[in-house]
Amino acid sequence: MGHKILGRDAYNVNFAMLMIMTAVEVGAVAASVQGAIVEEMVILILVTIGAIKFLGIAFVFMHLRFEEDSNILTLTALFPGVFILLMIVFIAITTPGAPDSLPAWCRF
Amino acid sequence: MSTSLTEERIRQIINEEMKDYGVRKRAPPSASDDDHGDDHHYGHHGNGWGPHDWEHGAPHNSWAPIIMSFGITIFLFGFASTFVMNDDLNDTVFNGNYLPIVLVGFAVIISGLLVWWRQDMSFDGHFEPKSAGAPFQNIDIRKVGMWIFLMSEMMVFSSLFTTYIRYRMGTESCQAILDNHATYSNGLPFSPGDACWVPASYFIAGSHSESWTLVLFPDTLVPGAINTFALIVSSFTVVLALKTANRTDLDHEERSRKIRNYLGATLILATLFLVLKLIEWFVGFNIGPFYAPSLLDDGYTIHNEMYHFAGAGHGGEYIDVNLRLSAATFYVATGTHGAHVFGGIIGLVYMTYKAHKGGYSPTNAVSIEYFGIYWHFVDLVWVLVFPAFYLY
Fold first, then answer.
1. Which ipTM score applies to this complex?
2. pLDDT at site B10
C-alpha cells in the first residue's frame, strides 16, 4: 500500500486510467457505428486499451507489482499462460476444417 | 523453585514455537480493536464450531469448504438433469424428477457456507500461516491458495475464449454472406438455416439498433457500458476498504463503519451488474424514449435457427441464419462470468456483515485483500469479455 505513480497514489491513478480508457473504448465503438472510423481502427483501439487495462488491474490492483512477493506471484499467474498459448495456437486459430487437412501421421 | 508464567512470557514461548512451524505473528490487537465481543480473544482455543482458532488464532483449517464442494457436486448433478436440451423440440425440457437432488445439493451448500462463516466470524488474524514449500516460502499461505485458485480460473476462462476465437475465426460472417447476396466466399450458395456468424455486438452495439436516445451510441449498448464502469468502480471500493482496514489512525468504530460502507458499495455495484445483465438478457428497457429490447426479444437465443438477418446496407434483403453457435458462446462466456460475480456477491454479503459487526482491523485486513484479488480477477475477465463480446 502507499505506492506512487507519477507522484500520486497508485490505486487512484489506476482507477482514473481505467475509467478514461473504458470511456475511450465505448467512444471508439460509437464512432465506428456512426461510420466515423473504420473497423480495423476500432479493433486496434480495443486490443490496445484492453491490454493496458489488463496490465493496470493485474499490476496495481492485484499487487503483481510493488509488493515483496510480486515476482513469484507474477510467475504463478503466468504459469497457465503455457497452456493458454497451446490452446490458442492449436485450437483457437485453427479452422473447423483444420483436422481434415492434417497429414495422416498426425491423426489418430 | 517456583516459576511464575507471566502473560508476556507465555506469548514469548508461543512465538518461539510458531517460528518452527512457519507461522508469523501479527501485532496483537489494541484494546480498541479487541472490544467487540467475539470469541477470538488472544489465547482462545476454538469452540464447537470447528478448529477456527487453529494454534492461537491462525486461519482457517476448516472442513466447511469440503462440505460445500460436496454440495456443489450434488447440486450440479441434479441441475444438469433437471433442465435437458431436447433437440427434437428445439427447446430445454424441465425434468422435475431430479429437483429433490437439486434442493438437497443447495441445502448442503448453504449449510457448509453458514458453518464456514460462523468459523470465520470469530477470526481476527493475529497469526498468518506461511507457506513452507518452494517456490512460495514465506508468502501467506492463504494468498498462495488464492493465486492457485485463480490459476485454475484462468484455465476456465481461457478455454471459453479459445472456443470463441476458434468459432469466430472459423465461421463465415453472415454480413459477408449477405454482402455476397447469399453466397459463401467459396461461391457455394447459402441455404436458409445454415450457420454463419452474427456477433452479439450486432444486437448490442450494431447500427441496426432500434433506439438512439443518447444520439452518440445505441440504447442497447448502455447497460453493458454501465456494467463496465460499475465493475471498475467496485474494484476501487474494495481497494478503499482494504486501505481503510489498514489504517491505525482511526478508532475501531469509525474504521469499521468506513469498511462496511466501502464493502456495501461494492455489494451494491456487483448487484447492479447482475441485475442489468439479467434485464439485458431477458427483460429489456422501455423507459420513455430509452428503448433497449432484451436479447431474448431480439431473437438472439441458442434455439434460434432461422433468424432474419438483415445486416447493414441491404434495404429489405435478408438471409435466415442459424444463431446457435454464436449465441451459445456468448451466453456461456458471459454467463460464467456472471456466475463469478454472483459468487463474489455471496462473499460480499458476509464481509459487509462482518465489517458491520466490527470484525475487521489492521490485524486481519489481509482477508479483504484476498477477496479483493478474486474480485479484481472478475473485473479483469470483464475487461476482455466486454470488448470481445459486446463491442466487436
1. 0.85
2. 63
